[in-house]
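Table S2 (text version). Query chain:
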Amino acid sequence: YDSLSGVATIIGFKTKKVLFIGIRNRYCVICNRAEIKNITPLDHTCFLNWTKSATGMEADGVAEGFLKSVDLHNMKFKRLIGDGDSSVTKRLKEILPYGPHFLVEKIECRNHMLRNYMQKLTAITKKTNYPIELRKFIIGHLMRFRTAIVRAIRYRKNENVSQTQQISSLAKDVHNTPYHIMGQHSNCDAYFCNKKTLADENLVLRAENCGMMMEINTIINRLVINSKSLILDLDNNICEQFNSLINKYIGGKRINLSQRNAYNARVEAAVIAFNSKQYLRAIMKNITTKSPGQFGKKFLKDANRKRLNNTKRRELFPTTSKNRNKKSGPDENYGLAEELPEDIYPEELEKQKVDFINKLREIDIDNLEKDTREQAKSPLWFSERRKRITASRVGKISKMRPYTSCKKTVHELLYGELNYKIKSIEYGRVMETVAKQKFEDIFNLSIKPVGLCVDENVPYIAASPDGLIEDDSIIEIKCPFSAKTEFNIFEAITNGKISFCQIDDKKCVTLKTNHDYYYQIQTQLHVTKRTKCYFFIFTDNWSYNIFIFYDVNFWNTKIKLQLDL
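Corresponding structure-token output:
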């Protein structure tokens, strides 16, 4: 995280060749010595091209490659296979290398997700507040958790059904894998389990009682959310292979090569070796325009023979690699996008605004709602939300003072995304499905899925309720992480665990009308043209429902006036 140099690489999926390298250097020995002596540095080729944090090198290097892809290769990179810990996606959303209508799709690396899954399961086995029998069972069957997911991916991706159905089925199978391994087979598919193991001990109930099952569901939820990436069954192993080659050329970071051109030259040599597979021959032919001599060819032929033999031996006789504990600290490169130059006149801005809104009016909102019913699993849902003010943002925008800067709010609308690593968000994602089932059991009502709903009169306002109920109602589900250990909602409000509700004089719980959730629900009701909302609050220990009705006066005075353009 304090490296003086770094390199970001873009490798073609089909060609397996390096298409771009972005090298960043934070140090130049000549400039540094001149600064120490307080003198002007001599004329020299300076390799210092990065002055920000080391954690931002990767994202900036990849972003440069995307910006130059058309000039270098006459193509646009539509998809990016990467690990989930990178800030590259955030950077690409900021710069939009191909414009706002061509978004780069992120595909999560299968190996990184499964490795992260294994690490978190291992961490559970070290928590002594869980029964020792359950912890021993998990650590003894650890690889089964991974193998079950790999098997599900292999089967579902070869099914002769639509990709949407493949993703949905895989998500269900992935969520069920811990239950299958721990002895509960009621939801196992026929291909996955022959149900002959029903006689095994069912550990699920014990795991649920002690809270372990909830934590396992929270961990596996990240895989469920990324089922779209898992079904593609892709990894970025080729990048790891290239990184190992770079590590070979820079000597494993044992020597400081960042003072002048040494780091750049060695990385470029690694690129030549990786792309040509004949480093010495390629360099010699380029410099001397002649092929190697007798002994040179003999050496290269012998080296190539050894390489091929090693490859065949590894395929025929695979060996288990030694586990190496790698330590790394979590970090990311924070910061807003660079300021845009003020080079547009008010008249031109007004014209562009009108043109943009008119384009939004041309979209078939009925088809848009149908095509985005998977919500967070749909790329279209993400791209269309970015063009509009959604219900969850209405409260913050409507309550802004006229003199409050909108810079951060606009940046959040355009580039912000949920961080599923935050425990409260992760908990809400896991519990939402459970909450829907609980609601249907209590009220004997069916929740219908709904996509992105757009206001037919104001095309830049949209909403995505958690579901539709009958012909006149919607449902909005909240699973507050802070109140999960309380015994009821009254205790949660009294202890300050729930801030969006209050207890009135009649000892009834109501939603605060000045809270963002109330603005969100009123917007959802207005956009969907419905009159009632089931505001369902759910935790492990209790649930509570609040009926909220559409208030046309609140909409007109508190929301519409503030959002009117």
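Notes on Table S2: Residues 280 and 300 are 8 Å apart (CA to CA). The two ends are 45 Å apart (CA to CA).
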